[in-house]
Amino acid sequence: MNTYRADLNLFSVFQAMLETRSVTLAADRFGITQPAMSNALTRLRQLMGDPLFVNSTSGMQPTPYALEIAETVVNALSGLQRALDHRKNFDPGVSEQTFRFHIPDMGQVNILPMLLERLQQVAPRVRVQTETLSQEDIRIGLENGRIHFAAGHLPRLRGSRLRTQHLFEERYVVLMRAGHPLSRSVLTQKSLLQAPHAVVTSLGGGHQIIEEVLLKKHARIVTYFPNIMALAMTLTRTDLVAIVPRRIATELAKEGRLQVAQLPIAMPAFDVAIFWHERSHTSPACIWMREQMIDLFMT
User: Fold this and answer.
1) CATH architecture assigned to 3-88
2) Would the CATH topology of 98-169+271-297 be identical to that of 172-268?
3) Nearest 5°: phi and psi at 114?
4) Mean pLDDT of successive 10-residue stretches along the chain, which has 299 residues
5) Could you name the CATH architecture of 98-169+271-297?
6) What pLDDT sits at residue 205?
7) What residues contact residue 298 under an 8 Å CB cut-off, 6+ apart?
8) 285 vs 87, 93, 120, CA distance in Å?
9) How far apart are CA 276 and CA 164, in angstroms?
10) pTM of the predicted model, to two decimals?
């Protein structure tokens, strides 16, 4: 049987006959005449090569073959209905959807805790999977569906079919340990450049300007870290300093072991945004997730 030529409506006829055991009742369910239902049943028998339902004193009884395929047909129709319903709405209260993100290491400190806190309240069964990809793999991942979203400061992310929504503007500050010698007076450009620096060079981020500015001004970069948490732990134990985004620095300084200072070097503010591919633009689930991100970070 060529499934490409099969009329899927006939399988709904099969289910109706299976449940009602009556051509008349099955026709009523479809809102058609009894002759029209009889005609559909005839076409279904021809398609399947079996009588499927035969007359008896207790109604139209399924043949052994009909009983064999009943569960498969009913499950297939249920799956198709779920697919159709999924396009109509998205219920965060019961959904087990997995949303896949690229979020650079620095952005994870700020974005993930707030997002997961929100999801725990409004979508307790929804899952979030985070990957850290290279700049080129971010674009490819959005195009081929490996990830649904990319979020963070991603100035190099480009693509003709990518869409974006600005979330907030951010600026850089200086992060150092509490009681650092530089904290005893107003931080100046000279004192900052004389201090030993640590720089985060996480994959897929957009903060290369930090290293570029420090090198241009002949600052002393002592070490590079692949992630922000390793940098933060090191700052608490040394006199190293680091230039990081303000929101991240504020979050890391909450426990009192680190402190934040205003950056005495001119560096431009930057945008944090969320990106997605246009093929998921009308997906109810993705629309809902974008709304959560906008509500969390634009207000």
Assistant:
1) Orthogonal Bundle (1.10)
2) yes
3) -70, -40
4) 67 88 88 90 92 90 92 86 69 93 91 96 95 88 92 87 94 97 94 96 83 95 94 97 96 95 95 93 92 92
5) 3-Layer(aba) Sandwich (3.40)
6) 77
7) 166, 167, 168
8) 9, 12, 16
9) 6
10) 0.70
Residue 9 is which amino acid?
N
Query: How many Å is the Cα radius of gyration of the chain?
Result: 30
Instruction: Tokens for 246, please give them.
Output: 């303000």
pLDDT the model gives residue 6: 66
Q: What residue segments make up the domains of the chain, in order of their start?
A: 3-88, 98-169+271-297, 172-268
